[in-house]
């Protein structure tokens, strides 16, 4: 059987849960090494660590430097865009992001600008006018670095698409991750050249979600966990398609060889792949995974496109 290779495009390794801290309380030791080991054994061969603020982006870069298979983003999440103005000098804050992105690129680690976009579900963190202002501003980062964008869109499709449309010449492409929108939202996003849609457990909760995901062309899709969030739960519509499972323990009874119950982690991106295949009625999961892998390389790892294409071709020939 052909080997499945996956890239998890969204992991929040800066989150305290990977240090064993939940709601401010320490339950177990930091366990990223074990989390990574499970991921590599499951067929994940690269992970993009998400940056959501200037400080978090610095930490994401530091984490990505600990393993050759880890990469990261640099940017400010919509719910944190107040940090530009709270810094006292928004332009200086922007320049610090740009310097960090360039430093990370030189190290071969920063592969995208983000996580940036609009989130109208959580306006108590940041009002829409500030979100829009600094979403638009971050296209300057993409333009200056020639990096793709790692995007966030929640309950804000109209404003989001309007801003992307205005700035579509300033970035080479990207992904709108953790997609939970409607078929109409999906159509708007896919009308942008070189825009992909990132799918995780939150994209696969309801029968309506599955209908939307089933309509996304595999050629325009990427997969992710958004760990430690967005796991596929037993109550989700997509659970019926899950085939791969791992032993789990509650955080209070943490064991290194088990996943923490209720905490998502990168090995579980395999389940996302299985649910996408299931809701699309695809039995050749290996071929689908190769296409998604190639999509991801095209945007974030273009230097590997030749080897990804070779893998696609050899996989095709293997299946003849």
Task: Describe the protein's architecture and organization.
Belongs to the metallo-dependent hydrolases superfamily. TatD-type hydrolase family. A divalent metal cation 2 binds at residues 152, 177. Pfam families: TatD_DNase. This protein has 11 helices and 12 strands. With 320 residues, it is of the alpha/beta class. It has a single domain, classed as Metal-dependent hydrolases (TIM Barrel, Alpha-Beta Barrel), CATH 3.20.20.140. An 8-stranded parallel sheet has the order 1-4-5-6-7-8-9-10. Strand 8, helix 7 (183-190) and strand 9 form a beta-alpha-beta unit. Helix 10 (285-300) packs antiparallel against helix 11.
Give the key terms.
320 residues; alpha/beta; TIM Barrel; 8-stranded parallel β-sheet; two-stranded antiparallel sheet; disordered C terminus; 3'-5'-DNA exonuclease activity; metal ion binding
Indicate the mean pLDDT.
Answer: 94
Helix content bin: 40-55%
What portion of residues belong to β-strands?
15-25%
Topology as a string of helices (H) and strands (E):
EEEHEHEHHEHEHEHEHEEEHHH
Query: What low-confidence regions span 5 or more consecutive residues with pLDDT below 50?
Result: 312-320
Strand count, sense and barrel status of the largest sheet are: 8 strands, parallel
Write down the domain tally.
1
Looking at CATH, which topology would you report?
TIM Barrel
Shape: globular
**Termini distance?**
12 Å
Lateral strand order in the biggest sheet = 1-4-5-6-7-8-9-10
Q: Strand pairing plus helix content: what structural class?
A: alpha/beta
- Rounded to the nearest angstrom, the radius of gyration is 19 Å
Provide the CATH top-level class. Alpha Beta
Q: What's the CATH superfamily, by name? A: Metal-dependent hydrolases
Number of helices: 11
Give the second-level CATH assignment, the architecture: Alpha-Beta Barrel
Care to count the β-strands?
12
GO molecular function, one term: metal ion binding
Binding site for a divalent metal cation 2: 152, 177
Keywords: Hydrolase, Metal-binding, Nuclease
Binding site for a divalent metal cation 1: 115, 226
């Amino acid at each position: 059987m052909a080997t499945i290779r996956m890239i998890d495009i969204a992991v929040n390794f800066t989150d305290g849960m990977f240090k064993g801290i939940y709601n401010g309380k320490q339950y177990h030791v930091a366990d990223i090494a074990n989390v990574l080991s499970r991921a590599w054994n499951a067929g994940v061969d690269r992970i993009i660590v998400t940056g959501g603020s200037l400080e978090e982006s610095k930490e994401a870069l530091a984490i990505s430097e600990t393993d050759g298979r880890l990469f990261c983003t640099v940017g400010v999440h919509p719910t944190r865009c107040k940090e530009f103005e709270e810094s006292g000098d928004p332009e200086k804050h922007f320049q610090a992001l740009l310097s960090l992105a360039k430093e990370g690129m030189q190290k071969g680690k920063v592969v995208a600008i983000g996580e940036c976009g609009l989130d109208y579900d959580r306006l108590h963190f940041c009002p829409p006018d500030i979100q829009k202002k600094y979403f638009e501003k971050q296209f300057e980062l993409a333009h200056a670095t020639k990096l793709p964008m790692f995007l966030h869109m929640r309950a804000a499709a109209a404003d989001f698409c309007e801003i992307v449309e205005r700035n579509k010449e300033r970035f080479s492409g990207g992904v709108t991750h953790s997609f939970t929108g409607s078929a109409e939202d999906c159509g708007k996003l896919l009308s942008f050249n070189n825009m992909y849609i990132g799918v995780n457990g939150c994209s696969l909760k309801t029968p309506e979600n599955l209908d939307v995901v089933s309509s996304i062309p595999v050629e325009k899709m990427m997969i992710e966990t958004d760990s430690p969030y967005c796991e596929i739960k037993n109550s989700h519509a997509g659970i019926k398609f899950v085939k791969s499972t791992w032993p789990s323990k509650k955080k209070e009874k943490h064991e290194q060889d088990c996943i923490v119950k209720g905490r998502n982690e990168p090995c579980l991106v395999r389940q996302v792949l299985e649910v996408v295949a299931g809701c699309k009625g695809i039995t050749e999961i290996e071929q689908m995974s190769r296409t998604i892998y190639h999509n991801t390389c095209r945007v974030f790892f273009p230097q590997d496109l030749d080897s990804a294409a070779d893998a696609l071709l050899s996989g095709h020939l293997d299946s003849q």
